Amino acid sequence: MSKSAKKGEETVVCVNCGTRLNTLYIQYSPGNIRLMKCDNCKAVADPYIECEFMIILIDLILHKPKAYRHLLYNMLSFKSEDIKHFTSHLQPQTSGTIWKSALLFLLLDAIRVFLLKRFNDDYGNSFLSMPKCREVFLDVLLGNIVFIVVLLLGTRFFVNCSLPITSYLEILLAVFVSSFFKVYLVAMMVWEFPSAVLYIIEMFVLSSNAVAFRVSTQQEAIRCISICLSAHAAKFLVDYWLLSLLPSSSR
Ligand SMILES: [Zn+2]
Q1: What is the pLDDT of residues 218-244, one digit of tens each?
Q2: Domain residue limits, the chain
Q3: Is residue 42 left, alpha or beta, with left meaning phi > 0 and alpha meaning psi from -120 to 50?
Q4: How remote is the CA of residue 49 from the centroid of ligand 1, in Å?
Q5: Distance from Cα 78 to the centre of ligand 1, integer Å
Q6: Using CA atoms in the order 45, 170, 222, 14, what is the torsion angle rounded to 10 degrees?
Q7: What is the pTM for the complete model shown?
Q8: CA angle, 102 as apex, 12 and 93 as ends, to 5°?
Q9: How many helices (H) and strands (E) does the chain have?
Q10: Residues, beta carbon < 5 Å, ion ligand 1
């Protein structure tokens, strides 16, 4: 049984239709559970509870919305105490899931920026020095500020004008978590890959972001793809603008 199964008292969703439920299963004794059916679609609400994580990971790679709903709502629990504390007391330290995923997202993006600069012969095969770290930090900071602003503005004006702040946090968390494909960039730091691989990974991240965005907003696919594509395109433009603007210390 997956360790991601949620307790009955938390708000969870049916992975088939997205309907909010109070519980996903009833536990009679240790190892003896009964999966609940959704009142709306009459199917088992979350069959992933009984799956190993590898099965879930494969379905995430295959971009199945069911797997994304399981990951984002039943595994990470958007409506858990994390977000409630974040919005009611504005104490960032209590919002562990969001901050951890944001930090990992930014760290992996720093690797992407470094690889991008390396492929543009700015850095060659040298290690990062302090000026280079500053350049990468600036790129990551500006690129992601633009990325998040475009994403949130797209959500504000093209999805729903009356979304509460928790919905924006849900969307951000969905985008951070669904960027897990960037983990493959770590391999590119160690082994030699053609630069095209970097763009292929970015395409996977974009499509994964669009699926997660769609799952968290329940909007049409074309609208979700357009918003995510705009945010990624804006970030790439910032990357290339900074690449042409900043003199590299290694030149
Ligand atoms: Zn359902």
Answers
A1: 888 999 999 999 999 999 898 888 877
A2: 12-75, 81-245
A3: left
A4: 15
A5: 18
A6: 10
A7: 0.82
A8: 80
A9: 9, 4
A10: 14, 16-17, 19, 38, 40-41
